[in-house]
Design goal:
The chain has one domain: MFS general substrate transporter like domains (Growth Hormone, Chain: A), CATH 1.20.1250. By secondary structure, the chain is an all-alpha fold.
Length: 443
Amino acid sequence: MKAVRTSGRPAASGYRWYVLSLLVLVYAFHHMDRQVVTLLLEPIKREFLLSDTQLGFLAGLSYAISFGIAGIPLGLLVDRVHRVRLLSVLLTVWSGLTALCGFAGGFASLVIARIGIGAAESGGTPTNVSLIADYFKRKDRPTAMGIYYMGTQIGTIIGFAVAAIVAQKYGWRAGFLVAGIPGLLLMLLVLTTIKEPRRGDADEDQEVPAASRSAPVAASSLGQTLGFIWSQRSQVHTMTGIVIAMAVTAGMGAWLAPLMIRLYGINLKTAGLTLALGVATFGALGSFVGGMLASRVGTRNVANLPKLTALATALTVPTALLGILGGSLPLTIVGFAAQHFFNAMIVSTGYALSLELTRSTMRGTTMALLQVLCNVCGYGFGPQFVGLLSDRFNPSFGANALPYAMALLALGNIWATVHLLVAAKWAPGDLLRAAAFSPQTSA
């Protein structure tokens, strides 16, 4: 399939940052629409008389399965079609379905909507990251990626704060409506103000002839991309470490509001505002700090990026355990604020590393594969694992069943840390292989 022709003009500096700001908002709405259900699990449980296993399926596996099925095909599209138009369509679908959750008649209709949201959102980050890589040069990408992944926490802050206030007053259905509708408005800005950049432009350290800049860049096939990923040992271990860490992240995030409500008897509004202002703000800071540190480390030696990611991953374990087992609401807030800080660093540094370990014609597919693995194995397994264990532990531990299930999952990041340390061993040579490639050779 022929690649899409795009503009060869380098984007002005101010415009690049404008594009990044819009993509941050897109990712914020992406995360808000994915995560708002976790805030509303307790009232949904009461209305539909659901078990924790069913709640885990609703929050995680129903979303993750469709994400996994749609992710690779959409990733291949990212490398072949007009990315801005594709992003606009995806944003419309997932935002609209989130709003429709407010009209759900039961568990089954909520699951169906979550399946559609997962499918549409599977193409969001691969598209966004591919665009960022073509707007920012290599030296600036870790910072740009760190800012981009602040969208996770921005979405949590806005979504949890607003949805909690609205849901407390008007019910959980209204919470879905206020989460979904703004994305439909953002879509108009994306479609009308973001220009499609030429693929690979920001990889070039020197000016190339105009004729070369206007030439289309052929996308790599799925087989070529998978083969190149498998040949990069550091990429394999980086992806494995990130996937395990995201399983822990998803399991912690999906059950944090129910944990606080059950252990400390707080209401939905208090839980939402606590998560938004007392926890997610530190995640946003961690994403920004992680991106800045990644840029500095990468300027000196990009091969040190996996070590930075491994350090952040290791530090999530004691902080998560403090939040889960601290025994008081203040300690829970402190523990999870720190855990969110380091977890955001994992994402901003780890994804930046994975992006550098691939080639410009493989970015959409590579990021889609990573997203699929994170969502199927991570967001599918993490919440479901905690829900199943909580139901299993309940006869013996009662109110402590959920905390003990979450604590067991938190230990998984020790395993993730080992993979990232192994990635550091192979990173120097693999980064050279990824960089030794000119976009013009594939045209």
